[in-house]
Structure formats: C-alpha cells, structure tokens
Amino acid sequence: MAALAKVECDDHAVGPRQRSYALLCSLLPDEERESFRSAGFLDVSTASGRVYRIYPFRQTEIFKRDRLESYACLQLTVAAPAFDRMIAEYLILRNDERFYRSNAHIYSARVDSKFATACLLLIALDVALVMNLIRKLFWK
Predict the structure, then answer these.
(1) Which residue has the higher pLDDT, 7 or 74?
(2) Virtual CA dihedral for 71, 77, 96, 55, nearest 10 degrees?
(3) pLDDT 10s digits, 9-54
C-alpha cells in the first residue's frame, strides 16, 4: 500500500493496478482520498445508518451504530485489480445500497449461539477426557 500511495492520480500510471489505484483516487473527494491513502480503506456511510469499510484485499466490513454487523463480498465477473472492485463497491453504495445488498454475499459477524454452546460442550468433554486419562495413568 505504501508503494501505491506514491502513485499520483494522473494518466501516467504504468500497470493495471497502478491505473486502477489512480482512477479510484480521482473519483474520491479530497478528504476521502487523503483518508484512504493514510488508512488503506474507504468508509462509505449510507442513508440506512450503516458504514461500509471497503478494503482492497479483504472483505468489506459493515458497521451499524459503530458495531461490526457483517462482512460483504462483492465479486466481479471478470478478473480485475482489487481497486476496480473498490471502485464498483464505492459507486454502488453511493447510489443504491439496496442493489448492493441484494448482489453482494453478506455474512453475519456474530457467532451463532448454538455453535458457541457446542464449542463449550466439546471443550468441557475434552477436559474431562484428559483428566480421566491422567487419573488412569498416574493413579492406578
């Protein structure tokens, strides 16, 4: 990311990744561009009150009232630089959040309570089995 931060928003970018980065920078308002260059992600606030944190090489995080609500994955139908996906997500979210939510794969960030309960029960069972094994090995 640091190497790309030196790429200016102009037409002299060399490869597809650099051109994609330059295009993304050219679409952003000055304040958002500087924030993206320093933080490495974009925060897009929507009318629903959600904030979408778009990363170049990670899934998008969706926050509601400052709490992580879910993750989103918007897949392009063609191979493209990560910054092209960021451009698509940014523009779609700015214009039609409902369209974004109906086309992106959205996964809950919350741990299912049944899964957590099952994990705790398995841990308790493992501890009981290890204790039983130690008892049989050392206290005959």
Answers:
(1) 74
(2) 40
(3) 555 668 899 999 999 999 999 999 999 999 999 999 999 999 999 9
Domain extents in the chain: 2-109, 111-140
Strands 60-64 and 67-73: antiparallel
| pTM of structure | 0.71
Buried b (16+ CB within 10 A) or exposed e, 90-120: bebbeeebeebbeebebeeeeeeeeeeeeee
**Long-range CB contacts for residues 21-29, cutoff 8 Å, separation at least 24:** 21/81, 21/83, 23/83, 23/87, 24/83, 24/86, 24/87, 24/90, 27/87, 27/90, 27/91, 28/90
Any idea what the Cα angle at residue 21 is, between residues 18 and 25, rounded to 5°?
140
Backbone angles phi and psi of 35, in degrees to 5: -65, -45
Between helices 30-39 and 16-27, what is the axis angle to 10°?
140
CA 52, 87, 83 angle in degrees (round to 5)?
Answer: 100
Strand partners, 108: 70
Q: Are 73 and 100 in contact (CB under 8 A)?
A: no
